[in-house]
Amino acid sequence: MDDKAWLERAVAAAAQNVLDGGGPFGALVVKGDELISVGVNRVTPTLDPTAHAEVVAIRDACQKLQTFKLDGCLLVASCEPCPLCLSAALWARMDRVIFAADRHDAAEAGFDDRAFYEVFTTPVEQWPVQVQHLGGPGATLPFQHWNDKADKVEY
Ligand SMILES: [Zn+2]
Fold this sequence. Notes:
- By secondary structure, the protein is an alpha+beta fold.
- The protein contains seven helices and four strands; from the N terminus they run αββααβαβααα.
- The protein has helices at 3-19, 43-46, 53-65, 83-91, 103-108, 113-119, 141-148; strands at residues 26-31, 34-40, 73-79, 96-101.
- Zinc ion (ZN) binds at residues 52, 54, 81-82, 84-85.
- Its EC number is 3.5.4.33.
């Protein structure tokens, strides 16, 4: 299957998911010519604000491949990944991301993807969530332990 065919499959999963009670988003993880996983948005049915299609697909792919790294994999999304999902692809070290609809299409349907991207271009004091760096004694202790740990699994 080529990119266009994978995208059509992700879009079909997204459309079906609306009929199944989820949000209008679908995603695939593909390795080579192999479909590893399909994820659909399950935020409201599972009461999980992080259950975005891409995150669901990435979690499932990692379980199936028994790894926390998806290098060599393609993330196929029915809509442009939001900052959460794009970060998930980064953390998973995926090779490539392709998407069909974009953040503006999502905004027209009432979703915050575009707004959340815009948050990162505004000063932190103006964000809708209050974020404070308070530091404090011992704040870096976990990193000292990590750096000293001989048998750590780096990711
Ligand atoms: Zn997302």
